[in-house]
């Protein structure tokens, strides 16, 4: 993927119109004291390019994706728990749930993902970051 991600950072792709997803990204930003993460919505040019390159179904924007440049990418529960590893405070302990089988973790993740708009609502457009947070977002297209 030809995305200019600063060295030493990881990219989180998320559903930019989902209220739950936007709240989760705001939470990550607040607890990412080392500024490990950069962000882009799945609906953005970068998000769409990533999905296309990996032949992922672009009609199903129901997963958070963590991209570790030149290493790997994770989605669903594994992405969420890999992100937790880098958060400040007690939140990094959540990564202990990686010991559970992926199939079980993703089953729970899928229940939330399937109902996220009904339970938490949906925006008409992707969130636009504040000027001080704009540098953390890779693409706003």
Count of extended strands: 5
What's the rounded overall pLDDT mean? Answer: 84
Low-confidence stretches: none
Structural class: alpha/beta
SS field, number of helical segments: 4
Order of helices and strands: EHEHEEHHE
Q: Mind summarizing the main beta sheet?
A: 5 strands, mixed
Strand order of the largest sheet: 4-3-1-2-5
Give the DSSP E fraction (strand runs of 2 or more residues): 5-15%
Indicate the topology.
Layout: E1 10-14, H1 19-31, E2 37-41, H2 45-53, E3 65-68, E4 72-75, H3 76-84, H4 102-120, E5 137-139
Parallel strand pairs: 1-2, 2-5
Antiparallel strand pairs: 1-3, 3-4
Short description:
The chain is of the alpha/beta class and 141 residues long.
Describe this structure in words.
The chain is an alpha/beta fold. Helix content is 35%, strand content 15%. It has 4 helices and 5 strands. A hairpin with a 3-residue loop joins β3 and β4.
Notable features of this structure?
single chain; 141 residues; alpha/beta; five-stranded mixed beta sheet; 5 strands
């Amino acid at each position: 993927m030809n995305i200019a991600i600063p060295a030493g950072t990881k990219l989180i792709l998320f559903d930019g119109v989902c209220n739950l997803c936007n709240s989760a990204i705001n939470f990550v930003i607040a607890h990412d004291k080392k500024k490990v993460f950069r962000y882009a919505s799945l609906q953005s040019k970068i998000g769409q390019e990533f999905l296309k390159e990996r032949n992922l179904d672009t009609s199903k924007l129901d997963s958070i994706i963590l991209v570790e440049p030149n290493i790997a990418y994770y989605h669903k529960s594994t992405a969420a728990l890999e992100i937790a590893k880098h958060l400040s405070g007690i939140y990094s302990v959540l990564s202990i749930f990686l010991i559970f089988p992926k199939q079980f973790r993703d089953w729970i993740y899928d229940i939330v993902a399937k109902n996220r708009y009904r339970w938490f609502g949906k925006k008409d457009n992707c969130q636009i970051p504040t000027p001080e947070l704009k540098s953390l977002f890779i693409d706003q297209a």
